Amino acid sequence: MLSILLACTGSDTPTTSPPVSTGDTAPARLCNGAPLCDRPLDQVAIAVTHNAMNVDEEGWLLPNQSFGYEQQVADGIRGFMLDVHDFEGVATLCHAQCGLGSEPLVDGLLRLRALIDAHPDDVFVFVIQDEIEAAPIEAAFAEAGLLDVVVPQVPPWPTLGELVDAGTRLLVTHERDRPDAADWYHPTYGLAWDNDFASKTVDDFDCDVLRGDRSNDVFLLNHFLTDPIATRRLAEEANATDAIWDHVNACEAESGHTVDWIAVDFYEIGGVLEVVAELNAR
User: Fold this and answer.
1) Tens digits of per-residue pLDDT, 179-191?
2) Distance (Å, whole) CA 94 – CA 101
3) Which CATH number covers residue 41?
């Protein structure tokens, strides 16, 4: 299921974001489309596309998203969950069965690298559901030229501005236990914790710990419905603004932890980007 981040209203042009005037004070610098440059990465709310590669418009069957990476980024998505499998000896992006849709990992990463380069004031997060060993995934990142932009080590958590200034604007995490992984290839559930992802109705949404520990810095909220597959009808229920806020508020109250990353299907339906913007404005 889970495969990776920052929700925001990021620019879809390869230019530096203009500062925001704050009256008599100096204009605020923008990171990820908002005045968040002084905020540590683990304290920034992020909208994440679940199975971001599993895209209807690109011909993938049983999709989780309507649009490819390029439109996702243009719309403000900065978090991507990506499933990686071995398909005929090649590290491949696909969801469960590669015959339903696939792309060599290095090809997908080259597309994403171009988008990262085109948004120099933005920080991105990939959460990888790694169904293969670390080495071929790390090799694909190297081939795509991404090793010079990955976040080398966390915690401590740099601010968005520090990451932008350093040019290390991509946090990459893996779900499996990979003690041999490179330092930049971080264990998701060493940094984060999440809730159950097997919800069929909005009444099934919960806040129980599935993976990781509540003492971890990042709370990844799985907020999508599968019955038995993802559909736009289900996304209309899950992604309704009130439904997202109900889940966020309930989980923050129960856990005492702010929601950081919100993973959804068909992100363009409903209000996840607006909710994330409001979370970042708190």
Assistant:
1) 999 999 999 999 9
2) 6
3) 3.20.20.190
Cα–Cα dist 96/146, whole Å: 25
Confirm whether 21 is domain-assigned: no
Q: Is 202:178 a contact under the CB 8 Å cutoff?
A: no
Expressed as residue numbers, the domain containing 275 is: 32-280
Q: What is the pTM of this model?
A: 0.90
> At a CB cut-off of 8 Å and minimum separation 6, what does 101 contact?
54, 55, 58, 59, 60, 61, 63, 94, 95
Which residues 6+ apart lie within 8 Å of 132 measured at CB?
A: 84, 85, 86, 91
276: left (phi over 0), alpha (psi -120 to 50) or beta: alpha
Report yes or no: 267 and 72 within 8 Å, Cβ to Cβ.
yes
- DSSP for 140-208, written as a single string: HHHHTT-TTTB----SSPPBHHHHHHHT--EEEEESS--TTS-TTEEEHHHHEEE----BSSGGG----
- Number of domains comprising the chain: 1
- Distances from the Cα of 220 to the Cαs of 44, 216, 277, in angstroms? 12, 10, 16
Cβ(6)–Cβ(44) below 8 Å: yes
Q: What gap in Å lies between CA 275 and CA 28, rounded to an integer?
A: 22
Give the tokens for residue 197. Answer: 């992802």
Which residues touch 116 (CB under 8 Å, ≥6 apart)?
122, 124, 146, 149, 169, 170
**Is residue 256 a part of any domain in this protein?**
yes
- 222-254 confidence digits (pLDDT tens): 999 999 999 999 999 999 999 999 999 999 999
Nearest C-alpha neighbor of 279 from the set 254, 239, 255, 252? 252
Residue 41 counted as domain residue = yes
The answer to whether 117 and 163 have CB atoms below 8 angstroms apart is: no
Cis ω before 156 (30° cut-off from 0): yes
